[in-house]
Amino acid sequence: MVLMGGVGVPSFSFCCLFQTRPTRPLCLKFRLKPSSSHSITTMALTNNTNERKLPVLLFDIMDTLVRDPFYQDVPAFFGMPLKELIDIKHPTAWIEFEKGLIDEIELARKFFKDGRDFDLEGLKTCMRSGYSYIEGIEQLLLSLKKNNYEMHAFTNYPIWYQLIEDKLKLSKYLSWTFCSCTFGKRKPDTEFYKEVVRHLNVDPTNCIFVDDRQTNVDAAIEVGIRGLHFKNVKLLSENLSLMGIDISTDEE
C-alpha cells in the first residue's frame, strides 16, 4: 500500500506542476490509475492469503489425544497393582526422563527404588502396544486440519513420544513442537507456557490449550492462554465451537 501510494502521488504532482498542455496530464492520469488500483488489489489479496489463522491450538497428548498405558498396561507388565507400582518406583526418575535430564538407560537403572533390573525393551513394547487414539479424537483432529488450524503438541513426555508417532502418525495432524523432554520444563510450570507463547510469537489470548488435567489448564489461564479441560470428545467439540472454532466437515 505504501509503495503504490508512492507511485501515485508523484505522478499527480508531475501533472500539476509541470503540465504545459492540458491533454498530456489527463492522459498520464488515465494510464496510471488503473495500474495503481490493480496493484493495490493484488497486494491486499496476497496479504489475506498469507495471513496466519488464529487461534493456535495446543493439545496435551496423554489421555487427551492418546490413551495412556501407564495406569493399566504397565502395572500388568510388572505383575502388580498400580498402587504397588507407585509405591516402589523411584519418585523422580520418570519426571527426570520427561524433562530430558536422564536417558532411558539411566531410567532403567533407577526406575525402582531398590534398583532392581527389568526388561526395558519389554516395557517399551508394552507401552507401544497400549497407545491408541482416544475414541473420536482423530475425526476431530482431521476436521481441524481440513479447516487449516495451526496445531501443536504441548505435552509432558520423554523421548518415547517417538513411539507414539511411529504407531499413530500423530504428525499428520499436528507438530510435536512442545515436548517437556526438549524444553527441560514440565506443565504446570508457568515458564513452560510462557516459552510456548514466545516461540509461537502470538498473544496468549490467541492460543487455546486442551488438557485432561485441570491443574495444567489453570496454569495456562494464569498466563493468559484460553484453556479447556478435556473430559470427552463430544464436550470438547461443543466447547471449541462455542469459542468460534470451525469443526465442520465437507460431509456435513
Shape: globular
Series of secondary-structure elements, N-terminal to C-terminal: HHEHHHHHHEHEHHEHEH
- Low-confidence stretches are 1-49
Q: Can you say what the CATH homologous superfamily of the largest domain is? A: HAD superfamily/HAD-like
What's the mean pLDDT score?
85
Question: Which range best describes the helical content: under 10%, 10-25%, 25-40%, 40-55%, 55-70% or over 70%?
Answer: 40-55%
Largest sheet: 5 strands, parallel
What is the CATH third-level topology name of the largest domain? Answer: Rossmann fold
> What class do helices, strands and sheet pairing give?
alpha/beta
CATH architecture of the largest domain: 3-Layer(aba) Sandwich
Radius of gyration: 27 Å
Number of strands: 5
What share of residues are in beta strands?
A: 5-15%
How many domains would you count in the coordinates?
Answer: 2
Written account of the structure:
It holds the Pfam family Hydrolase. It is a single chain. The chain is α/β, with parallel strands linked by helices and 252 residues long. It folds into two domains: 56-67 and 131-242, HAD superfamily/HAD-like (Rossmann fold, 3-Layer(aba) Sandwich); 69-129. Helices cover 53% and strands 9% of the residues. It contains 13 helices and five strands. The protein has helices at residues 2-18, 23-50, 73-78, 82-88, 93-98, 104-110, 120-130, 137-146, 161-168, 180-183, 190-200, 214-222, 233-242; strands at 56-59, 151-155, 175-179, 207-211, 226-229. A five-stranded parallel beta sheet has the order 3-2-1-4-5. Helix 1 (2-18) packs antiparallel against helix 2.
